Amino acid sequence: MIAQSAWPEQETAPMPLRALSFIAIFPSLLVACAPAPDFPTGAAANAPFPKIVPISEIQANVETQQTDDGVDALAARAADLRARAEALRGATVVDPMTEDKMKDALDAS
Asked: What DSSP line would sit under 33-45, residue for residue?
């Protein structure tokens, strides 16, 4: 005869439910460890909210310096690269004897 325990088997929640519970509780534990924010006191607590202004007004007050932002350097580099590309266009990579061997191998197959 098989002995049965005096305690009924405990039904456990399926694993996905446990994971969901952990995911729901974990962020609140992290927040509980955070320090409380410093709220203003005195006159600062009763200060009016800042005025919301359009971005165009903010941009109008900003002084900008007119620079070429490296356009001249970029144009010089582009011209140098174009000159290098032109020099490479006429150059052969493979010597004529090797090129003939390669063509013969392709024709034979």
From this structure: TSPPP----GGGG
